[in-house]
């Protein structure tokens, strides 16, 4: 049975890592629903957050294949209940629609969004939340009029303490024991 999984991949910060990571999914014909990269809490270590819909067996294989890459330190996967996650969406809407009454203002408040910028021709609105929440605001704004829409990839943090730190400490202990 397929379900949504969030993979967190920790790598050394090297050129070409994005291509190498994505190729593992491409070779297996697995569509990436969301991909976000950033530095991690550890200096020199980069973090990939990847969302896929697949089976647990396949996600385990993906993590194994990712960990075989030279500059990949560790790959973890989680179900949605095991992480805290958000996305950010930006909406560009016509200014005259905003000025024509308070329907838009009520909509923005109802969806816990905020206005970032008001210009003569447009207004930029920001909404953070899960994909279904940002999509709901998009659908509501389409009725009023919308110029542009963009949504980020998922950013996620696991509910347990950072596993990479524990994993690296364990490797250090094992290395010391063999000396």
Q: What would you note in describing this structure?
A:
The chain is of the alpha+beta class. It folds into two domains: 3-83, Alpha-Beta Plaits (2-Layer Sandwich), CATH 3.30.70; 85-151, ACT-like. Chain A, domain 2 (Alpha-Beta Plaits). The chain has helices at residues 17-27, 56-67, 95-99, 103-110, 131-144, 163-178, and strands spanning 3-12, 32-39, 45-54, 72-79, 83-94, 114-118, 122-129, 148-151, 155-158. Strands 5, 6, 7, 8 and 9 form a five-stranded antiparallel sheet that branches. It has a four-stranded antiparallel sheet with strand order 2-3-1-4, sandwiched between helices. Strand 2 and strand 3 form a beta hairpin. The mean pLDDT is 90.
Key features of this structure:
Alpha-Beta Plaits, 2 domains, elongated
Reported by name, the CATH topology of the largest domain is Alpha-Beta Plaits
- Binned strand content: 35-45%
Helix-strand pattern: EHEEHEEHHEEHEEH
CATH superfamily of the largest domain: ACT domain
Number of helices: 6
Shape estimate: elongated
- Low-confidence segments, ≥5 residues, pLDDT <50? none
Using only C-alpha atoms, the radius of gyration works out to: 20 Å
Largest sheet: 5 strands, antiparallel
Summing up helix and strand content along with how strands pair, one would put the structural category as alpha+beta
User: What is the end-to-end distance?
Assistant: 45 Å
Helix content: 25-40%
Mean pLDDT: 90
């Amino acid at each position: 049975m397929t379900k949504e999984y969030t993979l967190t991949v920790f790598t050394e910060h090297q050129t070409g890592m994005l291509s190498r990571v994505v190729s593992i999914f491409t070779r297996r014909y697995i569509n990436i629903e969301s991909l976000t990269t950033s530095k991690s809490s550890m200096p020199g270590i980069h973090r990939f957050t990847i969302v896929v819909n697949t089976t647990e067996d396949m996600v385990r294989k993906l993590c194994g294949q990712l960990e075989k890459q030279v500059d990949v330190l560790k790959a973890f996967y989680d179900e949605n209940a095991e992480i805290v996650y958000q996305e950010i969406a930006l909406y560009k809407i016509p200014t005259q629609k905003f000025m024509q009454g308070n329907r838009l203002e009520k909509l923005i408040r109802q969806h816990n969004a905020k206005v970032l910028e008001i210009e003569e021709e447009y207004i930029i609105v920001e909404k953070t939340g899960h994909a279904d929440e940002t999509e709901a605001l998009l659908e509501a704004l389409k009725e009023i009029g919308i110029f542009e829409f963009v949504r980020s990839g998922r950013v996620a943090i696991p509910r347990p303490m950072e596993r990479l730190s524990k994993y690296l400490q364990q490797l250090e202990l094992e290395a010391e024991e063999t000396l």
